[in-house]
Write a structure and sequence with these properties.
Layout (H helix, E strand, L loop, with lengths): L1 E4 L2 E3 L2 E3 L4 E2 L4 E2 L4 E3 L2 E4 L3 E4 L7 H9 L9 E3 L5 H4 L2 H7 L4 E4 L1 H11 L4 E4 L5 E3 L4 E6 L9 E5 L4 E5 L18 H16 L3 H14 L5 E4 L10 H10 L5 E9 L4 H15 L3 E6 L5 H10 E8 L1 E2 L2 E2 L4 H10 L5 E8 L5 H11 L3 E2 L4 E4 L4 H21 L1
Parallel strand pairs: 8-9, 9-10, 10-11, 15-16, 17-18, 17-19, 19-22, 22-23, 22-24
Antiparallel strand pairs: 1-2, 2-7, 3-6, 4-5, 7-8, 12-13, 13-14, 14-15, 20-21
Helix pairs in contact: 5-9, 6-7, 8-12
The protein binds MU-OXO-diiron (FEO).
C-alpha cells in the first residue's frame, strides 16, 4: 500500500517494460508509471485510472485499500487512454458513481468509450465537498489536450496535475526525494521538450493563474513518474523557465553520412564551434534516439543539420527530426546546414528550407563538399562552425 498522506493513496501501476509511447513515437528508456490516486474522506474519490493492459494490477491495488463499490466519484482529468483505459472496467463496479470531467473531457470520454455514465462537468474554480476536505478543479486546456484538467485537494494541499509536471520514469519510490535527482530532471525535461513545447504559451498562462489562486501546495502528483514532495514548486519554476524558450549558447549537430564524408565535415564544423568557445553535441540521426536528440535541441540555441545528398535529397533518417521540428515549434533557435555530395548536391539547401519552415533562423549559407572533403574544404568546415557559433553568440 503506497500512501501520499493518511487518507490519500497511490493505486496506479508502474510499467518497467515500456520503451516506446504514443505509437512508438516517444522513447521511454526508464519505463513509466500510470498514476492513479484514491482519496478517502466521507466520500471516496478515484483520480484517474491506468492504461487498459494494466487494469488487473490497478484493481488489486484498489482492493487493498477500498471496496471498489464504495467509490463515489471518479475524476477523469484527461481522457487519453494511458489514464482512462481502465475506466470502463471500474465503471462496471460502480455504474452509478459520478464521473467528474471538464467540458471537453465529457466529449473526449464519450468519444472514447460511448457510455452514458453519470457525468458531472466542472469548470475552473468549481468545488466539491467530500467531507473534511474539498476538491477544487482547474481546467488546463492544451496542457496537453483540450480536455486536460487539474484537481486540487484542500486540507492535504495536493495538486493532481495529470500529464503536466510528469516524467516517464518507473521507480520503486513514490516521491522525488526517493530517487536520483538528475535522472528525474532529465526525464522531466525530455517530457516537456517532446510533449509540451508547442503549448508553452498555455503553460505560462496556467502557471500564472495557479499562482494567483494562492493555494498552498505540499505535493504535486502527476499522472506519470514521481510525485514532487521535496520542494514541489521546483517543477513549476522549471516549467515557467522552459516555457520561455530560453536556451543555452550551445549547438547540436545532427547528421547522417553515407560513406563518412559528411561525418568528417561534422567533426570539423564542431572544431570550429569549439574554437569560438561554444559547447556542442554531435548526433548521427541514424543511430541516436530521436527524442533524446530533441531534448538536446530544446536545450541548445543552435541546430546544424547535415546530410549527404542522395536521390536529389537528404538521407531519410533526418526526416523524423525535421517533422518533429515543424510540430514542436521550438522558439528562438538559429541554424545552418551542410553535407557532401557526388553530383547534384541539393541536401544543404533543402535542409535550410526545412529549418526556415520550422521557424529556425538560418544564420549562414549551407556548406557543401564534393565526395571526400580535402584539406581546404575541411578548413572551410572549421571556419563555418566558428562563424556560426560567433553569429549565434551575437544573436543572444
Ligand atoms: Fe499521459 Fe496525455 O497522456
Amino acid at each position: 500500500m503506497k500512501k501520499l498522506k493518511d487518507n490519500v493513496f497511490w493505486v496506479g501501476a508502474a510499467d518497467w517494460e515500456v520503451r516506446h509511447f504514443h505509437g512508438n513515437e516517444l522513447s521511454t528508456h526508464r519505463g513509466t508509471s500510470y498514476n492513479s490516486y484514491l482519496v478517502k474522506d466521507e466520500k471516496t474519490v478515484l483520480i484517474d485510472t491506468v492504461w487498459e493492459p494494466l487494469t488487473e494490477r490497478f484493481l488489486e491495488n484498489l482492493k487493498d485499500i477500498v471496496d471498489i463499490s464504495q467509490i463515489d466519484y471518479v475524476v477523469v482529468n484527461h481522457a487519453e487512454p494511458d489514464h482512462s483505459g481502465a475506466l470502463p472496467t471500474i465503471m462496471e463496479y460502480i455504474p452509478n458513481a459520478t464521473v467528474i470531467v471538464s467540458k471537453k473531457g465529457e466529449e473526449s470520454v464519450k468519444r472514447h468509450y460511448y457510455k452514458e455514465w453519470n457525468f458531472k462537468v466542472v469548470s475552473t474554480g468549481d468545488k466539491i465537498n467530500i467531507g473534511k476536505n474539498d476538491l477544487i478543479f482547474v481546467e488546463a486546456p492544451m496542457l496537453h489536450w483540450p480536455d486536460s484538467m487539474f484537481t486540487y485537494l484542500t486540507g492535504e494541499n495536493i495538486l493532481f496535475s495529470n500529464d503536466a509536471f510528469g516524467q516517464h520514469f518507473a521507480s520503486p519510490g513514490l516521491f522525488n526525494d526517493e530517487v536520483d535527482d538528475c535522472e528525474v530532471y532529465q526525464e522531466a525535461l525530455k517530457y516537456y521538450a517532446n510533449i509540451l513545447t508547442p503549448f508553452s504559451k498555455f503553460v505560462t498562462k496556467k502557471i500564472a493563474e495557479l499562482k494567483g489562486f494562492g493555494l498552498p501546495v505540499d505535493m504535486i502528483a502527476p499522472a506519470h513518474g514521481v510525485i514532487w514532495r521535496k520542494d514541489p514548486m521546483q517543477i513549476v519554476s522549471l516549467y515557467d523557465e522552459w516555457a520561455t524558450g530560453r536556451s543555452e549558447n550551445s549547438v547540436v549537430i545532427i547528421y547522417n553520412s553515407m560513406w563518412g564524408a559528411t561525418h568528417k565535415m561534422a567533426d570539423f564544423i564542431a572544431k570550429g564551434i569549439a574554437e569560438a568557445g561554444v559547447s556542442y553535441k554531435l548526433f548521427n540521426s541514424a543511430t541516436a534516439d530521436k527524442n533524446d536528440i530533441l531534448a538536446e535541441v530544446f536545450k541548445a540555441k543552435g541546430i546544424i543539420l547535415g546530410s549527404s545528398t542522395v536521390n536529389n535529397g537528404y538521407l531519410p533518417s533526418l526526416s523524423p527530426i525535421i517533422d518533429e521540428l515543424m510540430g514542436l515549434k521550438f522558439i528562438g533557435k538559429v541554424g545552418a546546414a551542410f553535407g557532401s555530395y557526388g553530383w547534384s548536391g541539393e541536401s544543404p539547401k533543402l535542409l535550410e528550407e526545412h529549418l526556415a519552415k520550422a521557424k529556425v533562423k538560418v544564420l549562414q549559407e549551407g556548406l557543401k563538399a564534393k565526395y571526400m572533403p580535402d584539406d581546404k574544404e575541411l578548413t572551410a568546415c572549421i571556419h563555418f562552425g566558428k562563424a556560426f557559433a560567433e553569429k549565434m553568440l551575437s544573436e543572444a
